[in-house]
């Protein structure tokens, strides 16, 4: 019976700690909130990326947003003064300067014209179908690709050109690629009278193949004038 009188009741032992805990919560709620400590990592990030009212919001890390490179003016690697932007515009935006359209029977004359255009200081880049078309490629697809990849088109209009339905398709395709673009389509008429000039080309001046050098010089000058407009 002595043990029952010496031990306090269970409820009387827990009242005092619970009272202290309630007082602690009341004191904690009454305090003003304190500023959270700043970790070293966050402090470094704030220092390395300062912001100002005039600066735009950050778009991400430097590996995601690349600055525009400044134009190069030469270096140790001999890269010259051309920048990446200059190689993607102007004359170099297309693979060829000239696409020569001709009939099969005029292949020798077309080769002579291409040799003339590619020679000299200008070094015009010419597309000649039997020489430059991809082996195994579809004929129509190769022609369309050559026309769209060339700045100018020279139509070697001869009696053989007018007799060949394929040449008529080349002419119409060339006109559809650049309708109304002055200087891009250059007709070179040879062995024909003015009355035989195709009706589809009557709004264009043609180069007379009876002129000096077979009209080749006039064709070259016309191509060079157009290329100069590209900048």
Concise structural overview:
With 231 residues, the protein is α/β, with parallel strands linked by helices.
Keywords:
alpha/beta; disordered N terminus; single chain; five-stranded parallel beta sheet
Could you characterize what this model shows?
With 231 residues, the chain is of the alpha/beta class. Residues 1-16 and 35-87 have low confidence and may be disordered. It is elongated and about 115 Å long. Strands 2-1-3-4-5 form a five-stranded parallel β-sheet, sandwiched between helices. The longest helix has 21 residues, at 10-30. α6 (139-148) runs parallel beside α8 (165-177). The protein has helices spanning 2-6, 10-30, 40-48, 107-118, 129-132, 139-148, 159-163, 165-177, 216-229; strands spanning 96-101, 126-128, 150-157, 185-189, 207-208.
Radius of gyration: 40 Å
Question: Number of helical runs?
Answer: 9
Approximate helicity band: 40-55%
N-to-C CA distance? 114 Å
Strand order of the largest sheet: 2-1-3-4-5
Major β-sheet annotation: 5 strands, parallel
List the helices and strands and how they pair.
Blueprint: H1 2-6, H2 10-30, H3 40-48, E1 96-101, H4 107-118, E2 126-128, H5 129-132, H6 139-148, E3 150-157, H7 159-163, H8 165-177, E4 185-189, E5 207-208, H9 216-229
Parallel strand pairs: 1-2, 1-3, 3-4, 4-5
């Amino acid at each position: 019976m002595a043990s029952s009188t010496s031990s306090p009741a269970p409820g009387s032992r827990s009242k005092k700690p619970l009272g202290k805990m309630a007082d602690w919560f009341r004191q904690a709620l009454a305090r003003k909130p304190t500023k959270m400590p700043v970790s070293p990592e966050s402090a470094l990030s704030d220092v390395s990326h300062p912001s100002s009212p005039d600066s735009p919001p950050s778009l991400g890390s430097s590996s995601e947003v690349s600055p525009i490179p400044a134009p190069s003016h030469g270096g140790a690697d001999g890269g010259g003064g051309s920048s990446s932007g200059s190689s993607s515009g102007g004359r170099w935006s297309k693979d060829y300067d000239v696409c020569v359209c001709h009939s099969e029977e005029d292949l020798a004359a077309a080769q002579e014209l291409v040799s003339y255009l590619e020679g000299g200081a200008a070094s015009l880049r010419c597309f000649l179908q039997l020489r430059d078309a991809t082996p195994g490629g579809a004929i129509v697809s190769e022609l369309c690709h050559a026309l769209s990849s060339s700045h100018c088109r020279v139509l070697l209009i001869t009696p053989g050109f007018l007799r060949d339905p394929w040449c008529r398709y080349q002419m119409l395709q060339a006109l559809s690629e650049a309708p109304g673009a002055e200087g891009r389509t250059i007709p070179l008429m040879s062995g024909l009278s003015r009355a035989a000039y195709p009706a589809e080309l009557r709004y264009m001046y043609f180069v007379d193949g009876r002129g000096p050098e077979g009209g080749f010089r006039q064709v070259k000058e016309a191509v060079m004038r157009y290329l100069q407009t590209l900048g």
